[in-house]
Specification:
The chain is α/β, with parallel strands linked by helices. 25% of the residues lie in helices and 28% in strands. The protein has one domain (3-241): Rossmann fold. The protein has 6 helices and 12 strands. The protein has a 7-stranded mixed β-sheet, sandwiched between helices. A 3-stranded antiparallel β-sheet has the order 1-2-3, with no helix packed on it. The model is unreliable at 1-9, 14-19 and 223-243 (pLDDT under 50).
Length: 243
């Protein structure tokens, strides 16, 4: 169910091993099946719940922390879910290279790290670079669902989307306690306000292909980053833990 360092493989909960021949080629998903993706899926409370309620849909979680990936995998096996997978990789790279072009119905980003210190703001997920990759992956009419307990970050994310004419703000989905994430359950239990929002992808008649992704060392995520490393003609995926 996860990228194996140096082996160029992705494990799904079905136990099937799919070789990653080209780490810049989108993964294949069943044609005609709605696809939903959660960034930072944690232990899978939200996504596995949706997968259990919607067996006709496909679900992909993206998570960097190995222990959370293992918990997600165990939960899928325990519930007998064949329609939910998890990818251990960094979100920006995944959206830039590995997701199908205009193939996603909904992306969920709930309680991402707000990186509150000014010197760390460049590590935040929501920036023009991510929105550009996001738009290339969402279907026209597809949605980004967002929630955070951090008021300042909620304003930053809203401003980021407002500056991009390829998205329009819509009402966020209604979620009951059974669809709260682990963090949301904790924050709501503490009485913290939750800031939820959603945006819909619009058609872009002037869309251009994504340029190769380049990230300066100072902009790499501090807690872990997926890197592409070239060794002659061979490519491999490497996961570097935080420094």
């Amino acid at each position: 169910m996860f990228v194996r360092v140096g082996r160029r493989e992705i494990w799904y909960n079905s136990g099937v091993v799919i070789p990653v021949i080209d780490p810049c080629r989108p993964l294949e998903f069943p044609a005609g099946v709605p696809l939903e993706v959660e960034v930072g899926c944690g232990k899978g409370r939200f996504l596995t719940g949706r997968a259990a309620r919607h067996p006709e849909r496909r679900f992909l979680g993206i998570e960097r922390i190995p222990e959370r990936v293992r918990c997600f995998d165990a939960k899928c096996r325990r519930l007998g879910l064949a329609n939910a997978d998890v990818l251990r990789l960094e979100a920006l790279y995944t959206f830039h290279y590995l997701l199908p072009l205009h193939g996603i119905d909904t992306v969920y980003v709930f309680f991402p790290d707000p990186w509150p210190k000014r010197k760390h703001h460049s590590h935040r997920l929501f920036a023009p670079r991510f929105l550009n990759a996001l738009h290339h992956r969402l279907k026209t009419g597809g949605r980004l669902e967002f929630a955070t307990d951090h008021a300042e970050y909620a304003e930053v994310v809203a401003a980021c989307f407002a500056a991009d004419s390829r998205f329009r703000r819509v009402e966020p989905m209604a979620r009951g306690p059974e669809e709260w994430t682990e963090f949301e359950t904790l924050f709501r239990g503490q009485g913290l306000p939750i800031h939820a929002a959603a945006w819909e992808a619009l058609a872009d008649p002037n869309e251009q292909p994504l340029a190769p992704l380049t990230i300066a060392p100072e902009d790499e995520p501090r807690e872990g980053v997926a890197r592409r490393e070239s060794h002659g003609k061979e490519w491999r995926l490497a996961h570097a833990e935080g420094d």
